Amino acid sequence: MGGICTQRILTQREKQVFNLLIQNYSTKEIAAIMQISDKTVRNHISNVMLKLGVKGRAQAVVELLKLQELSL
C-alpha cells in the first residue's frame, strides 16, 4: 500500500565501493582507502553486477542511479 520502500539492494560496503567508483577512484585506490584487498573490491563490484543482472561497472552505476541507491 502507500508505504515507503526501505529495502536496499546494496550492503553498506558495496555502497561505499560504488560511491568511490563514481568519484573515479581505481580498484587499487578503493582497496587502500577501505583497507581491504583489491580482490575484495572486485568481489563487491561483481556481487552488485550479479544482483542487478548487468555486465559492466558502468551499467551497474546507471542502474544504481535509476534505483536511487547512488546519487551524483
Automatic annotation (TrEMBL):
Keywords: DNA-binding, Transcription, Transcription regulation. CDD domains: LuxR_C_like (cd06170). Residues 3-68 form the HTH luxR-type domain. InterPro entries: Sig_transdc_resp-reg_C-effctor, Tscrpt_reg_LuxR_C, WH-like_DNA-bd_sf. Pfam families: GerE. SUPFAM superfamilies: C-terminal effector domain of the bipartite response regulators. PANTHER family: DNA-BINDING TRANSCRIPTIONAL ACTIVATOR DEVR_DOSR. This is Helix-turn-helix transcriptional regulator. The lineage of its organism: Bacteria, Bacillati, Bacillota, Erysipelotrichia, Erysipelotrichales.
